[in-house]
Design goal:
Elements (H helix, E strand, L loop, with lengths): L2 H17 L20 H6 L12 H7 L7 E7 L4 H11 L3 H18 L7 E4 L4 H7 L3 H13 L2 E2 L4 E3 L11 H7 L4 E3 L9 E9 L3 H13 L4 E10 L5
Parallel strand pairs: 1-7, 2-3, 2-6, 6-7
Antiparallel strand pairs: 4-5
Helix pairs in contact: 4-5, 5-7
Length: 241
């Protein structure tokens, strides 16, 4: 990211901080004297998967059938019609980028404490196409990646992995359509940046794995010396044990 881009991003972030509500970011109740931006009740009820504490979990098993990876996990269950699903929709579609940063930090702290991700060198968010970025004004996966990287003590690489085309939204597509939609979708620029690095690939929601698999394919094709792990903020119910 250019210096001008960083300055503009910081100005936007600072403005968001000024107007953001002081209540719990999940339920909206007053925080009182509680620390952080999520109330104790919501923290207790958070639908965490605990996958990040084991190398044997449904998310990793799924991707191991597709390509060799180091580790893989998802932080929350993406459940139907509850406040956590609504939270992710707010993050993705309603401009509430701070949710990504907050949950990225929570996720990153647990990734660090698990000990399984401590040799990660770079955090790489799944990129948006420039046209979709201009329309949405931000990439939610970047904010999740920033929170994770902060806790792991590493940098975020937003430039190396990119989308070759502006593929249509996959929200209402069937699994087979999703796989066709992302075929040969990603590529790597300046692959030397990622050579011999352990990359943590970050996305918001794991549904079929099509997008992440396409990212893995591009990384292994263009940078065969890199190692890849995966972290998604949430995972669809089909991946439950």
């Amino acid at each position: 990211m250019s210096i001008v881009g960083k300055i503009l991003r910081r100005l936007v972030d600072d403005l968001g901080s000024l107007i953001y509500d002081d209540g719990c970011i999940i339920c909206g109740r007053s925080m009182g004297g509680e620390l952080g931006s999520i109330c104790l009740k919501c923290r207790f009820e958070m639908p965490t998967t605990r996958y990040l504490y084991s190398s044997n979990n449904p998310v990793k098993e799924h991707f191991e059938m597709i390509a060799p990876i180091v580790e893989a996990s998802s932080y929350l269950y993406f459940r139907t019609d509850d406040r956590w699903r609504k939270m992710i929709h707010r993050l993705k579609y309603q401009g509430e980028w701070r949710l990504g940063l907050t949950f990225g930090e929570l996720y990153g702290a647990e990734l660090k404490s698990s000990g399984l991700y401590n040799d990660v060198d770079l955090v790489v968010p799944v990129p948006l196409h420039v046209m979709k970025y201009l329309k949405r004004k931000y990439n939610q996966s970047e904010y999740i990646a920033e929170g994770i990287a902060k806790e792991l003590g590493v940098k975020v690489d937003r430039r190396s992995l990119y989308r070759r085309r502006n593929n249509p939204s996959q929200t209402r597509q069937h699994a087979s359509e999703r796989w066709l939609n992302v075929s040969d979708l990603f590529a790597v620029r300046n692959p030397e940046r990622l050579e011999n690095r352990h990359i943590l690939l970050v996305d918001d929601v794991l549904t079929t794995g099509a997008t992440l698999s396409a990212c893995i394919y591009a990384l292994q094709r263009d940078v065969p010396t890199c190692r890849i792990s995966i972290a998604t903020l949430a995972v669809a119910g089909k991946f439950k044990e």
